[in-house]
Amino acid sequence: MISSVLVANRGEIARRVLRTCRDAGIVTVAVHSDPDAEAPYVREADAAVRLPGAAPADTYLRADLLVAAALAAGADAVHPGYGFLSENAAFARAVLDAGLLWIGPPPDAMAAMGSKTEAKRLMAAAGVPVLTAVDPATATEAELPLLVKAAAGGGGRGMRIVRGLADLDGELTAARAEAASAFGDAEVFCEPYVETGRHVEVQLLADSHGTVWAVGDRDCSVQRRHQKVIEEAPAPGIPGAVRSRLHEAARTAARAIGYTGAGTAEFLLAGDGRFFFLEMNTRLQVEHPATECTTGLDLVAWQLRIAEGAALPAEPPGTRGHAVEARLYAEDPAEGWQPQSGPLHLLDLPGVDTRFGPHPADAGLRLDSGVEDGSTVTVHYDAMLAKVIAWAPTRAEAARRLAGALARARIHGPATNRDLLVRVLRHPAFLAGEVHTGFLEQHHAEVVDPGAKDGQALAALAAALADAAANRAAAPVLAGLPAAWRNVPSGPQTKRYRCGETEHEVRYRRTRDGLRAEDHPGVRLLGAEPDRVVLEADGVRRTFGVARHGDTVHVDSPLGAVTLTAVSRFPDPAAHTVPGSLLAPMPGTVVRTAVAEGDTVTAGQTVLWLEAMKMEHRVTAPTAGTVAQLRVRPGQQVEPGALLAVVTQP
């Protein structure tokens, strides 16, 4: 029997594993990098071991440090979570060699699936359908588009879509560089890219006694940059015969490599019902809560039982209702999915029924999050803040519940993809089950960048009135007078706020008849406090919650959440930048440069790549011209707003 488990991971998945271990009466041990020293999962564990440093390569990717931590803390088993070393066969062997129990599949099974090219060869031999690889040296126009993929790892790293043969060599080079950086293995391969295919996966559980379960399936087609955004169980709209073949193919894959524990077989499903094996994740999936909510299983608990030698019942449980999971990321979809960092002041989702575990009710809302109020989102790790999962008797009800919870959530801190998630969940095509891996590209204008939000102007007015109320409350004299009140007629009070590229000027005054907002003739002020403003606009009353952190103002109302930046009346002259300056859009590390000083570039040409939060981001020339300055080098870390290069026009 397992008595103590070290969780070789961090954040949300560490908290998830800790919860099940606590329920089972198992002592828990966490490991943490220096930035994670005060993270929620560290506080929740019975013991914690420091991994000196910040970068994953120095901490969570150090197998020797993780094994040493387990031994030092007296753990007798290791759970790898997902990501980092969770699919590293050498790490699993090191754990076993140290006399510890590995809560995962046999290392040989992990090694067999560790290379996508080798995995496809094994699956083809076992009779599981696979896509035929394309030799890039002999690729033809007829075989386009192609997908370049890293042989090791996942998460969209080292993956490129190629639509023109002229681009193939460059994309192969870029994919190899990214794969080598992310996984230590530069091997890539090419296969046909199915434009409107669906990403469907089958959850597996297998014991050491010969029983293999296909525990339902999930659709993970809504993706950005080949990384999943929304997942659901069961996969909608799949004919029963196709679903049965998918499940059987997944079981065949597991048996072919002697698999035990929890794992997932991933498939590409074409519109005509054909499907092809993509890869097998030899670990717990990020999206496993969707399956837990529809089956009532605790998959982590079964991982523990199977590691202890327990046998599965002959048949898996059936599914009930439908679950939809959304990944809440600290990123800005309208700015090329740029990851965001900084303090998270508030994360409040209404109606949460449970955290990190299945719920016995027929409908509910689950939250799995690695952060809480006051956490800091760093640049060192994945940008995911939380997973929000709704389940209900029907798919439409689950989607509506999830969209409503996200729309009403109060998230004060870095920019997130919350609005995109809400728009996808309410989009007619999504509700009709018309999902595929190109969904976000197809509906970009409606869900990714729909333009300015409704209610921005009213939000700016509320922010100004709340600020005035706060100033009046803090006034050393005459604090009881209403904000902006004047005894004689005078000019309006003026404040300015920026929301994205839009600037709002608010002009208002208090009269004996109440608020008079210069540009809002149909608006009445019903109440104003430093954190709450009530406005009636065209006969409709709404309450605006207002929170200010420095120059950033978060306004939450039934019209939606709006984040504003207060514009100073006296701008700092030092903030002026030279025309043609390329500034770092985020904190990160310069991965590689594509130009040198003196080179001529065209508008939009890549100058360098920044890596932040496990993603690479291109920094491009704003105009055609000459690279007058290149201020950074590969490996250099930069802060937001740092000058990277200067391109001067001829």
Task: Write structural notes for this entry.
Helix content is 25%, strand content 32%. The chain starts with a strand and ends with a strand. It is an alpha+beta fold. 47% of the residues are buried. Helix 4 (89-97) runs antiparallel to helix 5 and helix 11 runs antiparallel to helix 12. The model has no long low-confidence stretch (mean pLDDT 91). The protein has a 9-stranded mixed beta sheet. It has an 8-stranded antiparallel beta sheet with strand order 26-25-24-31-30-29-28-27, covered by helices on one side. It has a 5-stranded parallel beta sheet with strand order 3-2-1-4-5. A hairpin with a 5-residue loop joins strand 15 and strand 16 (338-339).
In short:
With 650 residues, the chain is an alpha+beta fold. It is 25% helix and 32% strand.
Structural class, please?
A: alpha+beta
Strand order of the largest sheet: 13-12-9-10-11-14-22-20-19
**Ends distance:** 73 Å
Largest sheet: 9 strands, mixed
Q: What portion of residues is helical?
A: 10-25%
Catalogue the unreliable spans: none
Shape: globular
> What does the oligomeric state look like here?
single chain
- Total of helices: 16
Please tell me the overall pLDDT.
91
Q: How much beta, percentage-wise?
A: 25-35%
Number of DSSP E strands: 39
- What's the alpha carbon Rg, rounded to whole Å? 27 Å
